[in-house]
Amino acid sequence: MSYGVKIFAGRASKVLAEQIATKFGATLGDVKVTEFSDGEFQPSFEETVRGQDVFIVQSTMPPTENLFELLLMVDAARRASARKIIAVIPYFGFARQDRKDKPRVAIGAKLIANMLMAAGVDRVMTMDLHADQIQGFFEVPVDHLFASTLFFNEMKALDNGNLIMAAPDAGGAKRANAYAKKLDTGLAICHKSRKKANEVAEMTVIGDVEGKDVILVDDMCDTAGTLTKAAELFMEKGAKSVRAFCTHAVLSGPAFERINNSKLTELIVTDTIPLKEKSDKIRVITVADLFSDVIDRLIKNESISTHFIIS
C-alpha cells in the first residue's frame, strides 16, 4: 500500500470496496454509521484521515440515502483534515437527468455535481455515465472509466465470425458502433418510441440480423423492458442468439421476471450495483481490478488511457 492512502466504503458498496481495497493491497478503512430512531444517520471515520488521500467508494443508486451518505462522508473527511478526497462512484445515480427534456424539470445530474463539490470532493472517479457531458458539470477532475475494458475480452471470446453488435435504441448507437468497429462486425439498431418513462410503446429493427449471434450493449438495464423486447424482436427477425452486455444492473420492478422469461441467452453486467437477487441468465463481472489499478495509477501520477479501449 502506498503511504498516505486510505480507502473507505459507504454501506451500499461495501462488498465492492473490500474487493478494490484487497486488489490495491490495503485494508478497508473503519467507518461507523450511527442510526437514530427517526431514520437519520451519521457516518464517522473510526481512524485518523489527517493528511491522507481518502478514497470513498459508494454507488448512488436509490434510495437517496446512498447519495446523502456519500456527501456526509466527504464532509466528514474534509472536516477531519484529509489531504485529498476522491469520490469513487461506480454507478452515478440521477445521470439520466442530464438536461431539460421538458419544461419545469430539474437537471438532477448537475445538482448532484454541485452538492459533491460543495461537500468538498477534490476528484471524482466513475464508470459509464449515462451522458458523457456530465463530466463537464464538475469543476474538479473526473476519471470516467468504461466497462468496455472488461466487456471487450468477453465479446472477443464469443466471436465466431458470426457476431453482430446491436443497440437497444438510437441513443446507444454510438457505443454499439464503437464495439462493432473494434470487433469488425456489423451493426443493428432498435428504434423505439415511448409514451412514458420505463414503458416502450413500439419498436422496430434497423439492420439484418438473420442467422447472426446478436450482442446488445447498453450502459444500464433498469426495468429490462427495452432489452427483453429487443431480444424478442431480434429472434423474430431470425437471429441465432441474443446476449446483452449492460454495465449497471439497476434491475428494478419486473426486471428479473422479464429477464428470466426472455429470449436472452445471457445478460452480462458488472458489480457497480449489487444484484438484488440471483438469476441463471445473469452473469456478473467485477470492476474491482479496474478501479484498484486506476487508484494506483492516480497515486503514482501515471496515465490511465490504456484502459480506454472503447469510449
Give a written overview of the molecule.
- With 311 residues, the protein is of the alpha/beta class.
- It folds into 2 domains: 5-145, Rossmann fold (3-Layer(aba) Sandwich), CATH 3.40.50; 148-286, Rossmann fold.
- The protein has helices spanning 14-24, 65-79, 108-119, 148-158, 173-183, 225-236, 255-260, 288-299; strands at residues 5-9, 31-35, 41-45, 53-57, 84-89, 123-127, 142-145, 163-167, 186-196, 199-206, 213-221, 241-249, 266-270, 282-285.
- The strands form 3 sheets. Strands 10-9-8-11-12-13-14 form a 7-stranded mixed β-sheet, with helices on both faces.
- Helix 6 (225-236) links the parallel strand 11 and strand 12 (241-249).
- Helix 1 (14-24) packs across helix 8 (288-299).
- The longest helix has 15 residues, at 65-79.
Report strand order across the widest sheet.
Answer: 10-9-8-11-12-13-14
The percentage of residues in β strands lies in 25-35%
Number of individual domains:
2
- Look at the structure and give the mean pLDDT: 93
Helical residue percent band: 25-40%
Anisotropy-based shape: globular
Oligomer: single chain
Total helices: the number is: 8
The CATH architecture category of the largest domain equals 3-Layer(aba) Sandwich
The CATH topology of the largest domain = Rossmann fold
Please provide the ordered H/E string of secondary-structure elements.
EHEEEHEHEEHEHEEEHEHEEH
Class based on secondary structure composition and strand pairing: alpha/beta
Briefly, what CATH class of the largest domain?
Alpha Beta
Largest sheet: 7 strands, mixed
Topology, number of strands: 14
Low-confidence stretches: none
Distance between the termini: 30 Å
What would you report as the Rg, rounded to the nearest angstrom?
A: 20 Å
